[in-house]
Design brief:
The chain is an alpha/beta fold. It has four helices and six strands; from the N terminus they run αβαβαβββαβ.
Length: 149
């Protein structure tokens, strides 16, 4: 094999459509743009979503909701997920993300522990926020709930 004999695979390349190069090319005269009209002009055409002056769909449908870009989002863990852990385990944000205890960890302001489920194991839980029921359940089981910033 020599470098001057290399070529692309069969069908991998297609010829360039050379417009306006005479009637014999099949792409001459109007250059495949038809006769006259907006689409035949240079710079012709309309933006995507334009409906000929009719009120566009994006403006016709009602708008609802609000997304607060300054809202803090926490990685949420329930007591039912912590109930399976061994006694004396220190649960913090790093532990949760490494062991896959939370569904979503990205762009998180820290860990928030909620009280869904029962906890019978004494754990040390370090989180940014606790629900009242979660904090009470952790302390009732003999563990500690520490708030970490």
């Amino acid at each position: 094999m020599r470098i001057d004999t290399l070529s692309p695979a069969e069908g991998a390349t297609s010829r360039v459509k050379r417009l306006g190069r005479g009637i014999g090319s099949g792409h001459g005269k109007t250059s495949c743009k038809g006769h006259k009209g907006q689409w035949a002009r240079s710079g012709g055409g309309v933006r995507p979503g334009f409906e000929g002056g009719q009120m566009p769909l994006a403006r016709r449908i009602p708008k609802r909701g609000f997304h607060n870009k300054w809202a803090t989002s926490y990685t949420i863990v329930n007591l039912s997920q912590l109930a399976q852990l061994a006694k004396g385990t220190v649960v913090d944000f790093a532990y949760v993300s490494e062991n896959g205890l939370a569904k979503e960890v990205k762009n998180s302001a820290g860990l928030k522990v909620l009280g869904a489920g029962e906890l019978k194991v004494a754990l040390t839980v370090k989180a940014a926020k606790f629900s009242e029921s979660a904090k009470a359940a952790i302390e009732k089981a003999g563990g500690t709930a520490e708030i970490v910033e």
